[in-house]
Write a structure and sequence with these properties.
Elements (H helix, E strand, L loop, with lengths): L23 H17 L1 H4 L5 H4 L7 H7 L8 E17 L3 E8 L2 E8 L5 H5 L9 E10 L5 E12 L15 H6 L1 H7 L1 H23 L3 E2 L5 E2 L11 E4 L4 E5 L4 H9 L4 E9 L11 E10 L3 H22 L8 E4 L2 E4 L5 E4 H9 L10 H7 L10 H13 L7 E4 L21 E6 L2 E8 L4 H13 L1 H4 L8 H8 L5 E7 H9 L4 H4 L11
Parallel strand pairs: 3-5, 6-10, 14-15
Antiparallel strand pairs: 1-2, 1-4, 2-3, 4-5, 7-9, 8-9, 10-11, 11-18, 12-13, 15-16, 16-17, 17-18
Helix pairs in contact: 7-8, 8-10, 8-17, 10-17, 11-13, 14-16
Amino acid sequence: MSKSSEPPAPSEPSRSSAEDGATGREAEVLAARRASLDRLGRDRAFAINLRSVLDVDEPTSTRAIREAHPDLAPDTTTAERFVVAGRVVLKRDLGKLKFLTIRDRDGDLQLVFAEASLPEDRFAELDEVDLGDIIGADGYVATTRTGELSIFVERWAMLTKALRPLPGKWHGLQDPDLQQRRRYLHLISDDTPRRYVLARAAALRTMRRVLDARGFVEFEGPILQAVAGGANARPFTTHHRALDIDLKLRISLELYLKRMLVGGLERVYELGRNFRNEGIDREHNPEFSMLEAYQAYGDYYTMMELSETLVVECCHAVNVVMGRDPDDLIIPSRGRELDLSPPFERVTILGSVSEATGEDLSLDRPDLPAIAERHGVEVDDEWGPGKVVQELFEKLVEPTIWRPTFVCDFPREVSPLARPHRGDPALTEHFDLVAGAVELVTAFSELTDPIEQRAKFELQQQMKEVFGDEVHPMDEEFLRALEHGMPPAGGMGMGVDRLLLVLTDAASLRDLIMFPSQRPEGG
């Protein structure tokens, strides 16, 4: 076997294992892989594409080969020839026979290399193949004596030499911090995060399909905003050098979508990222995905029907990825079963809190703060009764709601963008959809009265001393748009990550977000 002494290019110096901080066995492995690279030569270790080495533009997928040969008997050879490619995840050496298992996006497939079928130097060069390398192979479909569907290889090529090893075969990548920090390794060694990626893609396709079929138009609003509105949350800030102004990363999609309603786009939605400079837990991450949709001439009842349809349709789509019956709406969740069958239940927030406290609660009860404190809610002196009711709901009721439930008619105090309730002006036409004890959707009959909207914004500013940045800002440009007239409308916001949390039975949003925010390693 020829050996190459080609030195690394000056612009890309080869680092020693010591420079990588590796010691002991790890340093030996890294050094061995560098030596293998030197023997192969860089030009052969990193192919420009598949055609340059195996004369095809794309490999055949392992799934296509398996689906085309579902019942091939043991020890059978076919005349069908394919080129395949993937990452080497298993090696066996039986002398004159070598077995490599490769993995592509669809699964694993065994490659069989016989000394008699390959040139001597190409068979010997298989010794340079390590676990983690990406190779291509050209050969015939056959089965081994044990019935394993395989490609019996007549040509092969190194496509990418891996200079670092994969996680251990049996233990994989067990440290949750490393799983998130080095998600690429987690994806290689564990099928679960791969399923989460596919589940997200399936859910997003489904959301777009449902909305597009109803005549909604997808829109992309600005991420950098002078006024970050649409929610009560603390924003991230940055500075725009060219304009010499401070800007904020958006915390919501809402206010620009409403501008589109003013402009005549009567059904509009956005799927995008929001950013909130807040804490991290199972259901919260500073960077997260939202769907928001607005429908002119609808209301919060319209949004209930839309939300219900989206949840059910996304469940069907995610079931396929997770290996469940596509039609099954009873899914596993946190060790229990969760039934997503429509119609979803409907309760009022005051009714649910009254049931939880054993009190007949109303917003005009003077002892509301005392009742809240008896149930473990620390009440701020500046809170109004609506805020007290909301805090009671979040502490006592929301964690207990399992079956999908529309919690309706929130107090005006905590719903600055919602229309007053048509039957009780102290409340708003605002619902939250909760399932599996997770809030999935918030929706309103939208407030279109610019005078009342201004008054609500002004009230929020009065609360700024108490709640700091977590109040809705005054947005004069949005108010100006409302003054031109926005049609009556229903609007909803669905947390994409939270919906996937429920539909996939993941442990945390940080398992679903492939590269969540983290401190620097060692920091």
